[in-house]
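From the shared-data thread, chain only:
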Amino acid sequence: MNTNTRSALGAIEAFIHEHQLDADEGSMARFASYLDALLEAQHNSSIIGPLSPEQIATELICDSLQIMRVGPLAALVDIGSGAGFPGLPLKIMQPSLSLTLVEPRRQRHAFLQHCVALLKLEQVQCCKVKVEQWQAQDIGLLCSKAFTTLPRWLALGQQRLGPKGQLSVLCSKDDWLQHCADTIGTEPLHHRQEAQAQCEPYPLPTRQAGHASTPREQSSSQEPSGEHGQAPYSLIDAREYRWSRGPARMVLRLRLRRPATPHV
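Structure, as tokens:
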């Protein structure tokens, strides 16, 4: 193991300890094997961009682990998994959880299968299918990293989540505030009273005035929405964070609001 790889693993271990995350005893050994696989794929293909080992550790692996800061993990479904983010780092931390990786691209799907075998992970399904064709089953936590726009991600969650499922959101702070400042506010959300945070309505973002829609946004606008154009989400928790070379980011956990029970 060279110095750069050792430094990258040190960054992952420091992140886990700093945030007191619940890790399996074999997690660091699996992270070492996973990092080796990522670096080999980076050398031989375009699966991973031109990042240093420490940037892979912080901006991809630790960024995925941010999801653990806003609630416990459940049956994981990772949409557009690519090289395994965020699903594989979360599975490495808690190997007993079930994980579904949805990735339609052949090379990336093959890489995911290779990593699952390499890391000896069980209860993992690698689905080579587009999300539109994927048949959702029980979803504990629907997650993704840079799969699509924030509005489309929220609409997808509304389509796929059951009454007990939750939605993970990883996005820039600017993106979150652009769509949600008027309704959620700009104060650090984890400082709110838990009861208040859990009943906060979450609106489906709309385009800003004068903003020309892209083909992706036009397709997402066809997704179903809740009453008065609002997605029926409740905010469970959120954290703000920043990596050394990037803008402020946020990780959030949402759930679908249950319809009010009619009085009889």
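The beta strands are 76-79, 99-102, 124-127, 141-143, 166-172, 201-202, 233-242, 248-256.
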